Design the sequence.
């Protein structure tokens, strides 16, 4: 069994989500061969060198899971793209590129965080290209911690404000972009998060039937995709 989750937005201000995640690690995840976390694991991350005690506790919990034998794979989201190798080494997890193709029980599957599919949100994608530039990343990681904290708060507040103002279709995936990237990757299954709109969408890639599985965020409830040889099941559960 393989589990896939996304968009937990872990933060001290949401102890209910933290408790649910730790319970998930101690229970269901221990029975899995692998756990994939497809971005926005943390609400904000300003650098491995600035890990808070709360974030360090999450790191230790992941390490306990990986030490138990479950493989953990982590992908950057738009909120935590500064997670680096130091965190991954401490947690025992592997950092994935976005996008990437993996083998799930014999099927080639495309994994993405999902923000790259929102091509109508041109302003965000321009900012993303700037922030993900290697020179920008180097500069951000070398800013004083206090500056990074203030910058993270500003970006987070601006992101929330802009999202509220934008039309719903702009912050969702562009329909034509989905079959394009799937065809380019040579897959018929795409799994992503980011939009907070969990669903399984049927579509066509060329002449082949295909599907796009959207993971849900952990807010009012948790979401997990369970994958085994019998198929894929997208499930919601109570955070309590």
Sequence:
């Amino acid at each position: 069994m393989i589990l896939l989750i996304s968009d937990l937005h872990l933060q001290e201000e949401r102890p209910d989500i933290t408790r649910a995640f730790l319970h998930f690690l101690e229970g269901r995840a221990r029975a899995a061969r692998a756990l994939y976390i497809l971005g926005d694991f943390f609400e904000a991350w300003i650098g491995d060198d600035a890990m808070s005690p709360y974030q360090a506790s999450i790191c230790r919990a992941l390490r306990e899971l990986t030490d138990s034998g479950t493989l953990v794979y982590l992908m950057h989201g738009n909120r935590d793209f500064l997670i680096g190798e130091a965190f991954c080494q401490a947690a025992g997890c592997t950092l994935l590129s976005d996008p990437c193709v993996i083998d799930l029980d014999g099927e080639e599957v495309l994994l993405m965080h999902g923000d790259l599919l929102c091509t109508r949100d041109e302003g965000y994608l321009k900012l993303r290209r700037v922030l993900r530039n290697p020179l920008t990343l180097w500069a951000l990681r070398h800013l004083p911690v206090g500056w990074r904290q203030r910058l993270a708060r500003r970006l987070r507040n601006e992101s929330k404000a802009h999202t509220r103002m934008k039309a719903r279709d702009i912050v969702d995936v562009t329909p034509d972009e989905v079959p394009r990237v799937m065809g380019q990757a040579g897959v018929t299954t795409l799994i992503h998060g980011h939009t907070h709109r969990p669903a399984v969408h049927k579509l066509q890639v060329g002449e082949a039937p295909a599907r796009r599985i959207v993971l849900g965020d952990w807010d009012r409830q948790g979401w997990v995709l369970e994958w085994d040889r019998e198929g894929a099941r997208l499930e919601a559960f109570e955070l309590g």
About this structure: DSSP finds seven helices and eleven strands in the chain. The first strand starts at residue 2 and ends at 5. Residues 2-237 form a domain with the Purple Acid Phosphatase; chain A, domain 2 fold (CATH 3.60.21.10).
